[in-house]
Task: structure prediction
Amino acid sequence: MSKVADKKVYRLKQHSLAKISCYRNYVDIYLSVLANSPFEKLYLLDLFAGEGKDIDGNLCSSISGAEALKRHFTHCPEDRKKIVFFLNDPGNSVIEKGLKKIDRVKKFIDELQLPENVTVKYSSENFEDIIDGVVKRLSQLNSRERALCFIDPFGYKYSKPEKIRDLLANGKTELLLFMPICFMHRFTAKAMKDEDYTEGRHIEEFVSILFEKQIPDIHNQVAFIKGIQKQFKTYLGIPFVDIMYIEKEKSQFFALFFFSNNKKGFQKMLEAKWAIDDQNGHGFTVNKAAITNTLFDNIDHEDYTYQLYEEIRKKEVLSNQEIFDFGLNNNHLPKHTKKVLDELKRDGKIIISTSNGEAALGYYLEDNHNKKIIVSLKK
Result:
């Protein structure tokens, strides 16, 4: 293969740039939120660091993370938290022959001159050789430490549910996981129909473990993604799992899954995602014209309106705290919940009052807000 052809191998595509943009947004938010927290040490781990930059100078996740760190400490020099920035990639560079990918990453990070409270550690091990050590180290985090882990593998064989569960078991780690749904969906369908399809072994193992040997809904990729989200919640036993959809072409999706035990962190991730797609909050599509009749048009808003109203009907009375939590658990921000409550109130289906029974002026949809509001079903 020619040198020019080699370089074409590593030009980031639009869906990859969208994924990195969401990651960068979240790291920015993650650092700013924890700046005012009592935590003293943070671990930022990127287990597939890539080339650092593609041939056009577009940043990979590793350098995006490094720039986020530098940006944070430039704007918040009073934040003296210790940061351990751990970067791993076992691959050889396809842009600079004779170099490991991690060597290119190190070169770019050295140029950034990160602040002294950021310690960068490099590794070039295979994921399967390093993951148990990462799990063991994260399991030893103390009450003053937190971690954010990004896993963006080539393919899906490293997205084993049991490894994701192990990483999150300490309750102090948040995780971003990129999954090539379009390929997984196709291989799942084939593996379910053909017992002799040996190439589908990894996806068959993934589905069997996550879905506990039940048959997933594969009638389209969106249903498959939502099924994975639901099963992750059950299998991992954590309260918050969100998705950023990345549509590389019509009805062909990748997905960035976010896992958290922390309510505040989860809310901030939702904000990062909605900042990318302020219309639907699903994520990114390469072909904007393709979304005119997308699978998503109004579906999630209508579903959420129905879900929230059914919750109010079932409980008859809900506090603003309970409604705030319900929104996050269903992947919606307070502003979306307010919109639904406004509609239900306008249609005469609910009554909004204070704890004293007086008419309330607002909903106060914030976590642990000092004002208590009651939303009641109008009978």
